[in-house]
Amino acid sequence: MQPNPYLPYPVRIDEITVETEDKNLKTFKFTFLNPGDEEKFAYHPGQFAELSIAGKGEIPIGIASSPTEKGFVKFTVNKVGVVSTALHNMKVGDVMGIRGPLGNWYPWERLEGKNVVIIGGGFAFTTLRSSIIYMLANRQRFGQIHVIYGARTPGMLLYRDELAAWEARDDIHMHITVDGTNDPNWKYNVGFVPTITDQKAPEADADTYAIICGPPIMIKFTQPVLDARGYGHDNIIMSLENRMKCGIGMCSHCNVGQFFVCKDGPVFTLAQLNGMPKEY
Amino acid sequence: MKYIRIDKAQWAQGLAAAEKAYRLFGPVREGAMLNFAALAPGQAPDLDGLNTRMSARSVVYPQSEILFEYTVDPNDPDGNVLKEAPAPAKPAAAVGIRPCDAYSFLLVRRNFDAPDVKDVYWLRNYEATTFIGLACDHPGSTCFCTSAGCGPYSEQGLDVLLQDAGDAYLAKILTDKGAAFLAAAGWFTEAPADSEGCFSAGKEAAEAKITSTVETDRLAEIPQMALYDANFWEDIAFSCINCGTCTYLCPTCWCFDIQDEVRGKHGIRERNWDSCMFPLFTLHGSGHNPRGQKVQRVRQRFMHKLKYYVDKYGDGIQCVGCGRCIQYCPVNIDIRKVCQLMNRFGQDAACKVA
User: Mean pLDDT across the stretch B49-74?
Assistant: First the structure.
């Protein structure tokens, strides 16, 4: 019998962390109720899953944990609509579902031995966190790692403890920035992500790849910067979002031309996107 | 090929027998319109109309279909855990389905039966359905099936093809599933030896009556983004009111939404047909909408059927030529004209929607 791709794995909420000062972003740590489900949920950094709440529905959310972290999966969720609001109102111990992993992932085989520049903005940093944890756990498989990550204010940065820990390491170059702050002790960058990218991104070459994930406005202004700095469009990797329902290429909500963001994506190179309608 | 003769006097009796083993679907009159729906016990399908207003899509893919059931009772040990909804107990039979509608399932199957992931509900329902087709001896003015990959006597996707022979139906048995249905109905009378001739003569006559066509020969070779950026979309979309009628009547439209509903402590997760004509279809949580404008949605519908599908599967258009969207469009948007504009892209100096 075929497995039912719409059936979520039952999970329990083990931990809830409020991430940002506006309290609109929380990280949920889940453990699987049934033994064996965690193995079935084997994933790669860059993939997403449908978080499923009985009586409310499902939302597609990037996986924030890394496959190198065992025993749980983590998702950071912005409070936006019916399901995410219900999720924000849930408490530790509550039972819900996750369905996945879904979609493709950042091209880790192609990135082997390469320099990687992670460029993220706002709360789109979740699968980038997964990627950083994954790369640091497999540090010898990658060249230089740069991370350019910006939020509106210091209090809107996700995973602040981890950012500080990465900042202290010498095998990863962190370029944290905020749009603005009145904190006199702020010791990192101030400026929008495109500006900081222009200042800090390493020189482009065939062995250097940029992974971009952020709001449309950030992507719109970061891409010309990378262009000007000579990054090839095959070396610019982006993760898209679209309204989704099924997550498995059936319901057709998220199509961009002949491709589904949920199944053929969410990860596309800029070279691929250049030949597709801008319907995302 | 085996042919059976079903005397119309034995028709109702046979269906009554088949009803014991099958859930029967067929054309039924609902007010002024003919719908393709479940037959009530003892109800005969209405085979006098040309085609049903709604396609036969719902036999395999109901407009609303329960995927899961659950309880939201926190004290229940299974609280909030989804359970697969039970499958229908009996197989289904679509009696009097037109060849275009039967063929449409083959096009739609490519979506639901992908090599790497299977829509278990659609496939389960499709496999459990026997398709008893009725050949179209009197096709309508908006029928263009012969240039859309099928035809009035097309056997694609059918298990039995019926021909109306006046006081009887001639049944051409195409599959074992079809033979099993006829056996369940108790129809065993061998047809006269010239049945094959009746079918080929009927086919020739019916095909000759279809004079309406679509041009599709160049669709595959025109670059996708060139068509996407073509200058005719504003003209095509101008009169569209985004009512979505075309997408609900279409046998090859497959988009759906998933919703949870709870009453008391009992909940269901169901899927409902959805339509790319509606702005909500693509609305992001942020408020951003990649297809927020009408022209973008109209373009999506035609590009999907006539270009994206063509490019993705390399085997023709996602349209069977049933003509429903032409017939029932309140503002007379005609897929044949749109298809012609697309197919002649770059050839006609001034493309205008007549």
Answer: 95
List of domains in chain A: 9-101 (2.40.30.10), 108-239 (3.40.50.80)
Secondary structure of B26-47 in the HEC alphabet? Answer: EEEEECCEEEEEECCCCCCCCC
Q: Is residue B80 part of a domain?
A: yes
Query: Within 13 A of A29's CA, how many CA atoms are on the CB side?
Result: 11
Asked if pLDDT for residue B1 goes beyond 90, the answer is: no
The CA distance from B37 to B14, in Å, is 19
Q: Does A274 touch chain B (CB under 8 A)?
A: no
Interface test with A, best of B258, B263, B278, B286 (most A CBs within 10 A): B258
ipTM > 0.95 for the complex: no
Q: Is the pLDDT of residue B43 over 50?
A: yes
- Please indicate, yes or no, whether residues B201 and B262 belong to a single structural domain of this protein: no
Judged by CB atoms closer than 8 Å, whether chains meet at B255 and A277 is answered as no
The domain boundary residue, chosen from B164, B182, B209: B209
For the question of whether the overall pTM of this predicted structure is more than 0.90, the answer is yes
Q: Does A93 touch chain B (CB under 8 A)?
A: no
- pLDDT higher than 80, residue B352: no
CB contact under 8 A, B281 and A275: no
Domain count for chain B: 2
Residue from the list B258, B284, B311 with its beta carbon closest to the beta carbon of A258: B311
Nearest to B209 by CA among B134, B145, B139, B153: B139
Same-domain status, B279 and B337 = yes
Parallel, antiparallel or unpaired: strands A73-78 and A25-32: antiparallel
**Chain A residues close to B80, C-beta within 8 Å:** 10, 53-55, 94-97
Q: What is the mean pLDDT of residues B82-91?
A: 93
Q: Which helix (H) or strand (E) holds A148?
A: strand A145-151
B108 shares a domain with B43: yes
Tell me the residue range of the domain where B235 lies. Answer: 224-343
